[in-house]
Amino acid sequence: xxxxxxxxxxxxxxxxxxxxxxxxxxxxxxxxxxxxxxxxxxxxxxxxxxxxxxxxxxxxxxxxxxxxxxxxxxxxxxxxxxxxxxxxxxxxxxxxxxxxxxxxxxxxxxxxxxxxxxxxxxxxxxxxxxxxxxxxxxxxxxxxxxxxxxxxxxxxxxxxxxxxxxxxxxxxxxxxxxxxxxxxxxxxxxxxxxxxxxxxxxxxxxxxxxxxxxxxxxxxxxxxxxxxxxxxxxxxx
Length: 237
Description:
65% of the residues lie in helices and 0% in strands. By secondary structure, it is an all-alpha fold.
């Protein structure tokens, strides 16, 4: 049975840890992000986290029910970093594009964490605030509720799916990542037109583009589609 999490007001330790820090949820999450960056998902355990913090591992259960609960908090922090400082311009398309790129970039800033968290739903404060913001942009633009939900669904899933895909590549060992990137030049660019006419005709562009994320292009396509729909609604009004 999961241990109950201590309420916020009862969490703070009265004495600092061995490293001289007072434990907090934010300190634990920041330390976990550093451990993920240095050791990957397999290296994040309660015992190792306690050691990194200079605290008894059991103390962590005052803040989180376990590693899975901590994982949700990490994802929420990444979302919070994505929307921190964002301000609406009043242009729904520009606003959604900026939000999408910020979400994608925030996750890629911590690829190991992104692999663990991009597919999760936490219901935590930053996630809820981001969802409220995105839906607000769509509804303020004039999309009916059903359309706003449909576009929101596609928008957020696309953002997180590309974040997970691109983060998984960044999380690979450097040698494996370099080998994958070299395939486009070493293999595709050398296929003869006689057997692979379409690849041969597009090879220079494939080599130039395929090692970059397709997310900005996919995001623009989604927003173009939504914009065309909104223009149709306004025409009928």
